[in-house]
Design brief:
Radius of gyration of chain A: 21 Å
Number of strands of chain B: 17
Order of helices and strands of chain B: EEEHEHEHEHEEEEEEEHEHEHEEH
Oligomer: heterodimer
CATH superfamily of chain A: HUPs
Strand order of the largest sheet of chain B: 9-8-7-10-6-1-4-5-11
Helix content of chain A: 25-40%
Largest sheet of chain A: 7 strands, parallel
Strand content of chain A: 25-35%
CATH topology of chain A: Rossmann fold
CATH architecture of the largest domain in chain B: 3-Layer(aba) Sandwich
Structural class of chain A: alpha/beta
Distance between the termini of chain A: 56 Å
Helix content of chain B: 25-40%
């Protein structure tokens, strides 16, 4: 079983975003970086599959050379090797990104049985790269998966919707996108971190294409700053809150 | 003409699709709708009422239930026949997925989660990023615009129109288009209690709760108010509560009448999932916690003292 997980380096923004002076990007001077939330579950799923069925787990990302940091930290979780398609640090549009991923997947010596993506990136959330990759590779794709198992060459998945669960299956080789809640991602062990330093990260260069979905600027969404009314400190403020809850008809 | 994909679950319309119809009406008076699967024909009345003159229904023996790649193929066939200026759908998981298949078949761009659209050459959109915290202004370079509409950016408006004329067509499906489809369903984890989706009151806990056992206090308050317990991502990733209770971008998006956030600092992914709540009450030791910006009322202090005091005060007040 050879698994590929696609990742994206994103800033770890807390509660507030600040933009760069040209309003084209998030100011990341004071921010750390990680991967998108659902992707931690994707890596964990890949590690578990390889533990159960043997084989390899490869990581693939498109991003600046600094994205090696995210690859190394996920290699420490238990991936075998990684591929970094290096850009000049500019953001690529979904079509360009998908095409570069497809090229790297086709060029790789491994024929991946299963390719896993996170359901959406934390930053751009374009909801399409995985589908474009599936079309280009001619593979079935199941999206937004909350539980998954692989048996007899078939990946069997569940998607959680408002009124229950839907069951899907696809023959391998296939592509799935997974959601947070699929599993509980493990933390890297100390030996894992040590080994990750020595694992192989294959660097590829790629030339940007003219974007068809062309970002012009970013703006902060209008803040719905309600200016919370502070009812007080500690349990002394409880009667005031009871009054509020009574007024809004909470009981 | 603007073509709008009407998503439905075995004939039951996704109300967000009506918002997409209203978004289409803002671009043109010529709006037509498309539904995938024969059960979609039953929606002619409602799509007409919201401004579509025709309802194209993709009918095929292999389309029995949701089959996303087949939807993409059917949309491609219809687009090639009708040549609309734009194809819109709701910015829902299904809307995004089906239009992404269409864009992949046509190898053209797609703009997801748009709050504003201006047709032109190139087209221009405003679209949500970072869980709705950022708005991107972008050009879309293609003749046909493919875009989905951000859920709460527009209210559906009826036009009082006549039922749409139903036009059935059979898409030219390839075998690969129908490999992935819903094989079966079950009605989920319903324990007979109130779920996050339909709770009027949610008492939500974060890192400040400190551990699984601390949630007992929150459960008691939630029960007293006829609501349910929610939590932030750190709580589920620590294994304190099940993922089904997680509120936020990667959990459930909620909009109850009352949302009590206890010990939650307010990462933007959490805010994205609860900011549409009617009344938000925050209980937090940190007067600078980002979540306070979204709150209506707040108590600064330790939830471990405040929640039990609140529970007993409400009990008393109820008599």
């Amino acid at each position: 079983m050879d698994v590929l997980v696609c990742l994206k380096r994103v800033p770890l923004a807390g509660g507030t975003l600040i933009l760069t002076p040209d309003s084209r990007d998030i100011e990341t001077k004071h921010l750390g970086f990680g991967i998108s939330p659902h992707e931690e579950n994707a890596v964990e799923a890949g590690v578990q599959l390889v533990e159960q069925m043997n084989g390899t787990l490869t990581l693939l990302t498109l991003g600046p050379s600094d994205a090696e940091e995210q690859l190394r930290s996920q290699l420490a979780i238990g991936a075998t090797r990684a591929v970094l398609i290096e850009t000049d640090g500019q953001e690529w549009d979904p079509q360009g990104t998908a095409a570069a991923l497809v090229e790297a997947i086709n060029a790789d010596e491994t024929n991946f049985d299963l390719i896993i993506f996170g359901a959406e990136s934390a930053d751009s959330a374009g909801y399409q790269i995985h589908i474009r990759v599936a079309h280009a590779l001619n593979r079935p794709i199941i999206t937004n998966v909350k539980s998954m198992k692989v048996e007899n060459g078939v990946v069997s998945c569940e998607r959680v919707v408002a009124n229950g669960r839907e069951h899907y299956e696809a023959p391998l080789p296939a592509i799935v996108t997974v959601r947070d809640g699929l599993n509980i991602p493990r933390y890297p062990s100390v030996p894992g971190r040590m080994q990750a330093r020595k694992k192989f990260v294959d660097l590829k260069k790629a030339d940007p294409r003219t974007p068809k979905l062309e970002k012009v600027t970013l703006a902060l969404a209008p803040s719905k700053d309600k200016g919370a009314e502070i009812l007080g400190k500690g349990t002394e403020a409880v009667p005031a809150l009871v009054e509020v809850l009574k007024q809004i008809g909470a009981f | 003409m603007i073509l709008v994909l009407i998503d439905h679950d075995r004939g039951e319309i996704d109300p967000l699709s009506l918002r997409a119809l209203t978004a289409a009406r803002k671009l043109s008076h010529e709006v037509e709708a498309v539904a995938i699967g024969s059960e979609g024909a039953s929606l002619a009345g409602i799509v007409g009422e919201y401004g579509a003159t025709a309802l194209h229904v993709a009918t095929h023996s292999s389309i029995i239930d949701y089959t996303p790649m087949a939807s993409g193929r059917a949309l491609k066939d219809l687009v090639e026949k009708l040549k609309p200026a734009a194809v819109l759908a709701a910015g829902s998981p299904r809307g995004n997925e089906q239009l992404a298949h269409l864009s992949a078949f046509l190898d053209i761009p797609m703009a997801a989660e748009c709050s504003e659209i201006t047709l032109g050459s190139p087209h221009h959109v405003l679209r949500a990023r970072w869980a709705g915290n950022l708005i991107e202004s972008a050009f879309v370079h293609s003749d046909l615009l493919v875009a989905t509409i951000l859920g709460f950016s527009i209210e559906a408006q009826t036009t009082g129109g006549e039922p749409a004329t139903v036009v059935s067509f059979e898409p030219s499906l390839h075998p690969a288009d129908t490999v992935v489809r819903i094989l079966s369903r079950d009605s989920g984890e319903s324990k007979g209690g109130v779920t996050l989706n339909d709770a009027k009151v949610i008492v939500s806990g974060g890192r400040g709760v400190g551990g699984a056992e601390g949630f007992g206090k929150l459960e008691e308050l939630a029960e007293l108010l006829g609501g349910t317990v929610g939590c932030s991502r750190v709580v589920t990733s620590s294994g304190w509560r099940p993922h089904a209770e997680q509120v936020g971008q990667t959990g459930t998006k909620v909009a109850p009448d009352l949302y009590i956030a206890a010990g939650i600092s307010g990462a933007m992914q959490h805010i994205a999932g609860m900011k549409n709540s009617k009344t938000i009450v925050v209980i937090n030791t940190d007067p600078e916690a980002p979540i306070l910006r979204y709150a209506d009322y707040a108590i600064i202090g330790d939830l471990h003292q405040i929640i039990p005091a609140l529970t007993s005060a409400i009990r008393q007040a109820k008599g």
